[in-house]
Amino acid sequence: MAKKLFWEYSEPETDIETGELTGNTLTHTISLSYSYFSGKAVVTIDGSEFNISERPFALKGTEQMFRLGDSAALLRFESGEPTVTVDNEILKPIKK
User: 68-75 contacts: CB < 8 A, separation 24 or more?
Assistant: First the structure.
């Protein structure tokens, strides 16, 4: 059975033309559906879905790098629940 996790990350919005902060906040959403047993994993980042599946039992110990706006992020499959790290800060999963 696949497990599901959700995270949110907020950052200040930057004007594309001037590079200055607009005073608004952008919130990025990440969801993950995964199974260590089958090796299947699908991550959805701001509405875009990515299949990051591995062979059965091979997810543990893997990492996936991605961007959240202007920030670098890392999805890490560890021995417990997977974690998302953004700019060296581990995000806490949210309940949905």
Answer: 68/9, 68/11, 68/28, 68/30, 69/11, 69/26, 69/28, 70/11, 70/14, 71/9, 71/11, 73/9, 73/30, 75/30, 75/32, 75/43
- DSSP type of residue 75: E
State pLDDT tens for residues 17-70. Answer: 887 877 788 899 999 999 999 999 999 999 999 999 999 999 999 999 999 888
What's this model's pTM, rounded to 2 decimal places? 0.85
Strands 48-51 and 3-14, by their bridges, are unpaired
